[in-house]
Amino acid sequence: MAERQSNEKVKFPLRLxxxxxxxxxxxxxLGIAVYLITALDNYRSAYxxxxxxxxxANNYNLDFKEELDExxxxxxxxxTSFDSIQDDGSLEDPYALIGELRADFTDLMAITTDRQSxxxxxxxxxxLDTLEERIDDVRANVEQGGxxxxxxxxxxxxxxxxxELIQDDIQYYIYYQTRSIGSLTxxxxxxxxxxxxxxxxxxxxxxLLAVIVSSLILKSITHPLERLCRVTERIARxxxxxxxxxxxxxxxxxxxxxxxxxxxxLRIMISQIKEDERKMRRAELxxxxxxxxxxxxxxxxxxxxxxxxxxxxxKAVNIVVSLSEFFRLVLSRGQEFIxxxxxxxxxxxxxxxxxxxxxxxxxxxxxxEPELYRYRILKLTLQPLVENSLYHGIKYKRAEGRIEVxxxxxxxxxxxxxxxxxxxxxxxxxxxxxxxxxxxxxxxEKGFGLANVNERIRMNFGSQYGMxxxxxxHQGTCVSITIPMECMxxxxxxx
Length: 495
What we know:
The protein is α+β, with helices and mostly antiparallel strands. 68% of the residues lie in helices and 9% in strands. Helix 2 (14-76) packs antiparallel against helix 3 (94-111), helix 5 packs across helix 6 (251-290) and helix 8 (313-331) runs antiparallel to helix 9.
């Protein structure tokens, strides 16, 4: 039933809208891109051919005449012979040079399309044939011997003139190939202008169509989504009564209805959970705090009785006064926060009472910077730590022990150290205790007093604050507490 209703709501799926928008934008642009790529590839191919041809021609234009003239002259004057010239690294064989030139320019003739360039290639190849014949004549004279003057005349009137003509042919070929680049560029420019005019008209039409279609499609998508985002942000802030009520005919409407249903269920659920959690947490934490006091009270009263029976009335009076101060600070008119000064008085009263019972093993020192007295701290933060040092550290040492309580400022933080020189812990036991204090105190198997302190600090100040425990077997334990530096809001908080 629910699926059928959902299908009835979704008549224009978002997928269809998006596909339509993409097609309107992409298809015309794809056609333009294909045309442009084809035109550029044709121009690139033609340009690379011309550049390649000019590169080959330039290689000979630079040094062909000079190398051939030098080689044929030294052959004519008898400096070297036609048979041994290849072994002379400083000279080039005229026949080899002509052969290389003829082969390369024959290849150029096959790929050159420009008419003027082909004319000069044909002239160059004819001159090469004539040059080769004249070199044959020089070779014949050299082999016959004694024709130096005739050879010099042939060089001046034939060979040198022919190499000059060949060099001119090469230069004219390069010139007309350069003009071909200009012609190609002009042709490309003309095509580019036609293409630009075509593109302007096509793009104008595409842009107009795309703007109209995309604005309609995007409006039908973004406006509901923006409204839904605003609603979900308000729901995230805890406004569970807000509703989206989007009336489109796509998946956004189905999502909107789901968000509205979720908000209503969350409103009911969160309200119930908050109420239950509030009652449970307060009852749990108050119970855990109360568990700190009974045994201590029983033992203290037993000590008072013992002192009275032993006729040590002054000590008994001091304990009763300390006990009265202790419980006055514990109660604190129901306030959860007290000043650090009051917390110091609290632990001092506690340690003074315990020192009477354990006078042979307990020494203590409290050193809290006076500038910290006016800042606030959770009630019963340090007392469980001191109690833990006494009962799990000093008491099992069976010798005189010492507890130190240190409070100091660290920037905008306050750090407390409760340190003893008791029995300490093995590494495995320390790791287990560290793991325990990170749990909610109701889930701890041991050390629930420390877990209670750590959990209350994190609940009231934030997860970045809390407790750290370090211990070494037979050397002692140090518990550090870190809280933010916050003044009491008003005098009533102190109790």
